[in-house]
Amino acid sequence: MKIREISISTYSVAFIAALALSTTSMTVAAHGTAKKNSEVAQTEKKEPTIGATKLNDTLTLLSGVGGFTGGNVVVSNGPDGMLIIDDKLEAMTAKLTAALNDINPSNDLKFVLNTHWHFDHAGGNAELGKSATIVAHTNVRKRLSTPQKIDIFKKDLPPSPASALPVITYDDSVSIHFNGEEIKVTHMPSSHTDTDSIMYFTKSNVLHMGDLFFNGIFPFVDIQNGGDVVSLTKNIEKVMGIFPADATVVPGHGPLATMADMKTYHQMLTETTANVSKMIKAGKTLDEIKAAGVPKTWAGYGWLIDVPTWNGIIHSSLTR
Ligand SMILES: [Zn+2]
């Protein structure tokens, strides 16, 4: 499968470099004209592209190859037209559109579903929303229509244009009946943000987790914007109890996964949280906790979010 060929190091370097720069730098990094540091220089060598992995006759996974393009996208293509879950970074919109044209030259894109509001998952909204209908949780519309900050990545985000805003919103859940199956969309409160939904294709048995799930790496949990590690961990446990053990699981970031991979991720969340909790109880300072590392099993998870940052995110969740 193409997704397995992604070099984790290229992917993470590109991600960190892109996120470390200012708001406009996403475009800059993606086009390879920034020369702010060596990490960015490394992304300049080749432009990231979008690779397609067919999941079945109807569904295709679109993922970044050779660099950071934004979150994983699932496309449903069939007699009703096309529907996509998430639409990557704004700078990738032309490549995303080309990938959709490859799947179906008539590119009859009817719906865009957003798993959450982040710019690397809803970046294509402004362009694609001019013709397709955007569906997302109520808080996605709230956040996209007002100024937002993500301090950890030094991001000051202005309100999005009207075309980028969800037209259909929901508070708890909604179903979309499309291409011969029901897509069950369920809001997961205070997880990665306060805007998250997971989306399940009932016939295909494919579950898109959005950024509740980073496969094989520490997740970014946006504490500033309603995320919470403890609540996220409980929600992952809930999901594992609801959906079939043989479901195909699409993480927000990282390679295509299984429920067993999500179980491993849940174990990582639980054990790294217990580790930080123990240190807080022992009276350690934030700096000491950041420097203390993680249990050995999870040391290799510090790619997108490094170990000190991850311990800091857990600390924020446990101490507010
Ligand atoms: Zn996100």
Write a concise synopsis of the structure shown.
The chain is built from 10 helices and 15 strands.
Strand order of the largest sheet: 1-2-3-4-5-6-9
Class per helix and strand makeup: alpha/beta
Order of helices and strands: HHHEEEEHEHEHEEEEEEEHEEHHH
Q: Can you summarize the main beta sheet?
A: 7 strands, mixed
When the domains are counted, the total is 1
Summarize the amount of helix as a percent range: 25-40%
Radius of gyration: 19 Å
Given as residue ranges, the uncertain stretches (5+ residues, pLDDT < 50) are 1-43
Architecture, according to CATH?
4-Layer Sandwich
Quickly name the level 1 CATH class: Alpha Beta
Determine the N-to-C terminus distance.
42 Å
Bound molecules: zinc ion
Question: What's the β-strand tally?
Answer: 15
Number of helices: 10
CATH topology: Metallo-beta-lactamase, Chain A
Please report which band the strand proportion falls in: under 5%, 5-15%, 15-25%, 25-35%, 35-45% or over 45%. Answer: 15-25%
Mean pLDDT, as a whole number?
A: 89
Determine the CATH superfamily: Ribonuclease Z/Hydroxyacylglutathione hydrolase-like
Shape: globular
General description of the model:
There is one protein chain. With 320 residues, the protein is α/β, with parallel strands linked by helices. It has one domain: Ribonuclease Z/Hydroxyacylglutathione hydrolase-like (Metallo-beta-lactamase, Chain A, 4-Layer Sandwich). The protein contains 10 helices and 15 strands. A 7-stranded mixed beta sheet has the order 1-2-3-4-5-6-9. A 6-stranded mixed beta sheet has the order 10-11-12-13-14-15. The N and C termini lie far apart (42 Å). The N terminus is likely disordered. It binds zinc ion. Zinc ion binds next to loops. The site of zinc ion (ZN) has 5 residues, from loops.
